[in-house]
Design brief:
Strand content: 25-35%
Order of helices and strands: EEEEEHEEHEHEHEHEEEHEEEEE
Bound molecules: FE2/S2 (inorganic) cluster
Distance between the termini: 16 Å
Helix content: 10-25%
Number of strands: 18
C-alpha cells in the first residue's frame, strides 16, 4: 500500500509493559473506551507511533480470537534505531499511543492443514498467534524455536502448555553458531504438504531459504523484523533509470530504491519493506541487481527486483516503473 492509503491510526491505551525475558517486554494495548478492536488473523502486525515520532511494526502475539486487546513482544535492541528502547523504557501502563490497525503480510493459507514454524529469538512472536489459531482450527504444526538461553527466551510457559508442548522444540545455542540447530534433516522433505513459516535474524532466514530450494516456493514464507539491517558496510550509491518516464534517480548509500523513488515524488506500493511480502516486486529491465529479499525464487532474479531492500551491483539499473 502507499502512504496515502494506509488506514488511519487510532489512539490506544497501553495496559501492560512487563518484562517477560531478559531484554524482552510485553506491551498490551486496549481501546481507551473499552470498545472492540479491529480484528486480526495470525501473522498480522500493528504499526506503533513511538513517542520519539518513529513508526515501528510489531507482530501480534496474542490469540486472534481476542477482540479486546493487542499484545506485542518487543526486544530491547541496543544496536537498533532507538524505537524499541523508547517503547520499553519510557512507555508505561496508562499512556496512550497511536496505533495503525493490523495488517497481515504473513498470513496462513486457509486451506493448509500442516505447518512448520521456525523462529529465531524474538521472531517467535507471530508464531504465538499462529499456534493458537492452528490449535483452534484443529490443524497440525511443528514449531522449532532457536534461542540463546532460557533467560532470553520469551513465552516458555505458554509453549509448555499441554496443548502445545508436544509440537514445540526449543533449542538453546548459548550464542555459539557451532551449537545451532541443524535444519537439514528438518527441511529434508516437505511432509503432509506443510507450509513453512520462518521469522528471525537474517542469517537464520537465509540459511532456511538456502535449504528449501526443493520446496515449492509458494509453501515457504518469511517475515523479517521491521528494523532488519539490510544495508552493508560495502554498499555503494548507484543510479536507477525509470523506464516509464525516462528519469534517472540517484540511490544514495543510506537509501533504498523505494525511498529514492518516493523522494522523487512517486507513489510506490509497499507493505513489509523488508523484502519478504512481495508487494514492491518490479521488473528489472537492464543492469545487475544485488538481491537482498527473501521472496524471489532463483529463476525470477534475472528480471525482477524487490525495490524495498535490493540494490545494484552495476552502476546503473533500469526498472519498469
Ligand atoms: S514491500 Fe514487501 S517485499 Fe518490498
Amino acid at each position: 500500500m502507499t502512504a496515502s492509503d494506509q488506514p488511519p491510526m487510532m489512539p490506544l491505551r497501553v495496559t501492560r509493559n512487563d518484562k517477560i525475558a531478559d531484554g524482552i517486554h510485553l506491551l498490551e494495548f486496549r481501546d481507551p473506551g473499552g470498545k472492540t478492536l479491529p480484528e486480526f488473523s495470525a501473522g498480522a502486525h500493528i504499526t506503533i507511533r513511538v513517542p520519539n515520532g518513529a513508526l515501528r511494526k510489531y507482530s501480534l502475539c496474542n490469540d486472534p480470537a481476542e477482540r479486546d486487546r493487542y499484545a506485542v513482544a518487543i526486544k530491547r535492541e541496543v544496536n537498533g534505531r532507538g524505537g524499541s528502547i523508547k517503547l520499553i523504557d519510557s512507555v508505561k501502563a496508562g499512556d496512550e499511543l497511536m496505533v495503525a490497525p493490523p495488517i497481515n503480510d504473513f498470513e496462513l493459507p486457509q486451506r493448509a492443514t500442516d505447518f512448520l514454524f521456525i523462529a529465531g529469538g524474538i521472531g517467535v512472536t507471530p508464531f504465538m498467534a499462529m499456534i493458537r489459531e492452528a490449535h483452534a482450527a484443529k490443524k497440525r504444526f511443528r514449531l522449532y524455536y532457536c534461542s540463546r538461553s532460557p533467560e532470553t527466551t520469551a513465552f516458555i510457559d505458554e509453549l509448555s502448555a499441554p496443548e502445545f508442548k508436544d509440537s514445540v522444540t526449543i533449542h538453546y545455542d548459548q550464542g555459539d553458531p557451532a551449537r545451532s540447530l541443524d535444519f537439514k534433516l528438518i527441511l529434508a522433505e516437505r511432509k503432509n504438504r506443510e507450509h513453512l513459516y520462518c521469522c528471525g535474524p537474517r542469517p537464520l532466514m537465509e540459511a532456511v531459504r538456502n535449504m528449501t530450494g526443493h520446496w515449492s516456493s509458494a509453501a515457504v514464507h518469511f517475515e523479517a523484523f521491521s528494523d532488519a539491517e539490510t544495508h552493508k558496510a560495502t554498499d555503494k550509491a548507484f543510479k536507477v533509470k525509470l523506464a516509464q518516464s525516462g528519469d534517472v534517480i540517484d540511490v544514495l548509500v543510506t537509501k533504498t530504491i523505494l525511498e529514492a523513488m518516493r523522494e522523487h515524488g512517486l507513489e510506490v506500493p509497499s507493505s513489509c519493506e523488508t523484502g519478504t511480502c512481495g508487494t514492491c516486486r518490479t521488473k528489472l529491465l537492464a543492469g545487475e541487481a544485488d538481491h537482498r529479499d527473501l521472496c524471489l525464487a532463483e529463476h525470477e532474479r534475472g528480471d525482477n527486483i524487490m525495490i524495498c531492500v535490493s540494490r545494484a551491483k552495476s552502476d546503473k539499473i533500469t526498472i519498469d516503473r
